[in-house]
Specification:
The chain is mainly alpha-helical. It contains 8 helices and no strands.
């Protein structure tokens, strides 16, 4: 399949094949090489309704074919595949667990779940222009964020009651 900007051979054009548009290639580059979710990849590529566009793009046979080609290119170039990576992460997890290095085992399992698509890191980022805001407006907004954060926090610090100890005689054992 030709890359963006390459002309299709006559037989492919007659068979109804199309080449990728630059925006579709940008989506694939974001999705495959920049570790983005499909929705974020579509958003960064400039699609308006990113979640719907991402699903449509991945169902598009031309886009799906190019995605498969890009994966094979990466696999050949770096000698990496999802199957191999997941298998290696499982081995690392098991070895760390057996050696009592539990945080390393948990991290390997987290990466394994992300690689297999079972764990997705979701973030919600709000961008707001505060250049025209006054100092008081910014302080109010910060207080609002603080109240919101405090409402979501759970205090897990135990109450410490001060216990007064009476001095005791230490008996010697003979």
């Amino acid at each position: 399949m030709p890359k963006v900007g390459e002309d299709l051979p006559k037989e492919q054009r007659e068979a109804g094949h199309r080449r990728l548009k630059p925006q579709q290639q940008d989506f694939l580059n974001n999705y495959l090489h920049k570790d983005m979710t499909q929705t974020e990849a579509a958003r960064q590529a400039g699609y308006k309704n990113a979640s719907v566009s991402a699903v449509r793009l991945l169902r598009n046979p031309v886009v799906a074919e190019r995605l498969q080609e890009m994966r094979l290119e990466a696999q050949a170039k770096f000698g990496v595949s999802v199957d191999k990576s997941v298998r290696d992460l499982k081995k690392l997890r098991d070895e760390a667990w057996e050696q009592g290095r539990f945080s390393e085992a948990i991290r390997a399992e987290e990466l394994r779940l992300k690689a297999s698509g079972l764990l997705i890191n979701k973030q919600h980022v709000v961008k707001e222009d505060i250049t025209a805001s006054s100092k008081e407006d910014i302080a109010k907004k910060l207080d609002e964020f603080k109240r919101l954060a405090e409402s979501r926090m759970v205090n897990v610090t135990p109450d410490i009651d001060i216990i007064e100890h009476q001095p005791q005689d230490i008996a010697e054992d003979n």
